[in-house]
Design goal:
Elements (H helix, E strand, L loop, with lengths): L13 H8 L17 H11 L11 H17 L4 E6 L7 E5 L8 E5 L9 H6 L11 H8 L6 E6 L3 H9 L1 H10 L1 H22 L5 E7 L12 H21 L4 E4 L8 H8 L3 E3 L8 H8 L4 E3 L4 H6 L2 H18 L2 E2 L12 H18 L1
Parallel strand pairs: 1-4, 4-5, 5-6, 6-7, 7-8, 8-9
Antiparallel strand pairs: 2-3
Helix pairs in contact: 6-7, 6-8, 7-8, 8-9, 9-10, 13-14
Length: 367
């Protein structure tokens, strides 16, 4: 049973949220954090809990604004101190589409073709339809930043990271081969991606009420990084360092979401790139509690409730895990509670609400 949701009179404090994560404030409050909440999970909350009409995002300005109003209201009434939104320039790549068997999900799911890249040689590099920063529509970013409720902040980024776009454009298989057969082409592709993303970032960091850049870039799988640690250091991390520098120059923290095992490059991410917080944890790789013991003195720790728990147990067990992380990780500071990855459509709605409701209950009891 939900005791607190939706909040009738939220009191977000984005400044306090950042101060807690940056270690500038000692607080008994453990704030909420999330990277992405799937629209197919968000919609019934907006319609049934918030009693608002769902509006699909389309290019028409009026409808898009109505959609963004619902989006903002969702983050506000669920108890977050911020709205997180991302969008990108639309790097072209080959994609596969199939029916999605997960319950409560979109009817079709698509993913990047891992075998067939759109750039496999220099001719394809030259003919590739590289996006133009001048053609990017920043309307949704600008609308959100100007229409936040009092006290809320804006966390944002370019949708998709350096490695994600590199491996999508060249395909994961094509990238793996090119790292040995044509490293100059890999460098050219990643430099073009990085250059465009830095231009994109210069727009983002100038928006009103931005409190952090929260960039996603999945760099690993269960046992290792997706490409060798040395190749990560050569091709990918230097561009993250530039993105972090742009962010830091505006006095903002740079948080990184990365799935998979990145233990081999973690010190590089902290010491060289300069990330201020890490998100995405899987118990089979490193439980969030162990990560915090290892790195929590240096960076913020974000989320950590394993998706296997969030998606496959009863709500009371989700509440128990939420309390455990609040009492354990929260006690050490520089921590915000949330999912270990994101909240996809296959997570039972009652489990997501149980996580949020329990976190709010803990906050209210320690206030």
């Amino acid at each position: 049973m939900q005791r607190h949701l939706p909040l009738k009179h939220p009191t977000p404090d984005a400044g306090d949220f950042i101060d807690i994560l940056m270690g500038r404030a000692k607080s008994a409050r453990v704030p909420l954090v999330e990277y992405i909440v799937d629209y197919f999970l968000m919609q019934p909350i907006v319609e049934n809990l918030l009693d608002r009409q769902w509006v699909t995002a389309i290019k028409d300005r009026q409808n898009f604004a109505a959609h963004l109003n619902n989006f903002i209201e969702f983050w506000y009434r669920m108890g977050y101190d911020f709205v997180r939104f991302e969008s990108g320039m639309g790097f072209s790549n080959h994609r596969l589409v199939a029916d999605d068997p997960a319950p409560n999900s979109r009817q079709r799911r698509e993913w990047v073709d891992s075998k067939h890249g759109t750039i496999t040689n220099w001719d394809e590099f030259e003919s590739y339809p590289w996006p133009q920063i001048e053609s990017v529509d920043f309307f949704p970013f600008e609308y959100i930043s100007k229409n936040l409720p009092e006290g809320m902040g804006f966390m944002t980024c370019h949708a998709g990271g350096i490695l994600e776009h590199l491996s999508a454009i060249m395909s994961y298989e094509g990238l793996s081969l090119a790292l040995y057969d044509n490293p100059e082409l890999v460098q050219a592709v990643v430099d073009r991606i990085g250059g465009l993303m830095t231009a994109f970032y210069r727009h983002l960091v100038d928006l009103e009420h931005v409190i952090a850049i929260f960039q996603g870039d999945d760099m690993g799988f269960r046992t290792a990084t997706l490409i060798s640690p040395d190749d990560m250091r050569k091709y990918v991390l230097p561009w993250h360092k530039k993105l972090a520098a742009i962010t830091h120059a505006k006095g903002l923290p740079y948080f990184l979401h990365s799935c998979g095992n990145v233990n081999a490059i973690m010190q590089n991410l902290i010491n060289d790139v300069g990330i201020d917080g890490k998100h995405s944890f899987e118990d089979a790789i490193i439980p969030v509690q162990d990560f915090q013991q290892r790195y929590g003195q240096s960076i913020a720790v974000l989320g950590g409730i394993d998706l296997n728990i969030l998606s496959d147990v009863e709500p009371e067990r989700v509440r128990k895990k939420t309390r455990e992380l609040i009492e354990g990780c929260g006690r050490l500071g520089r921590y915000a509670v949330g999912s270990g990855n994101s909240v996809p459509s296959y997570v039972p709605l009652e489990n997501y609400l149980a996580m949020i409701d329990e976190a709010i209950d803990c906050m209210q009891r320690t206030a």
